[in-house]
What we know:
Blueprint: H1 3-23, E1 53-62, E2 65-76, E3 79-88, E4 91-102, E5 106-113, E6 119-128, E7 133-142, E8 148-158, E9 172-173
Parallel strand pairs: 8-9
Antiparallel strand pairs: 1-2, 1-8, 2-3, 3-4, 4-5, 5-6, 6-7, 7-8
Amino acid sequence: MKKTSLYAALTLAFAGLFLAACAGAGGTPPASTALQQTSPQIVPDAALRNLSGQYGGTIIDKPGGMGKLSASLAQYKSAMGGSFRAKIGTSTKGYLVAFSISTGNTLGGTIIFAKTPTCTLITSSKYDTKTLMLSGKYKALNGCTGESGTYAVKQKCYYVLNGAIRPENGLKQC
């Protein structure tokens, strides 16, 4: 098995466990968050676009500043998860992410930065099928007051998913 395929499989397995754990956590996040979305519509399998793959681009973090962001994301039906890696100045941080994909290539989810205390951020983003850009914004939900920002990453390659749609744009398999 190729290294990227193994990484994709492990990332997808983690994302499933992460989503299952979050679904059963029992806690209710604060209702007064601007980025929280209503329950997303589940997209039928035939209509899914394959958003799995590796991404690279920029992040503008408040209070950190501008930096580079890379992502490796794996998708299963209308759920997607994986990792973000942000380099801002001399600092490099890794984050775990979980998204729910709703209609229209809109994603809502959670970003977790493991520190003490754990920093939980909420995010909303959109995938542009023409430019292959995943652009979004995030803000603090718990454990990291004042943290917010935006990101824009372009899909560099994709992981193979059975039955998911790939645009005819020359994007290569990872």
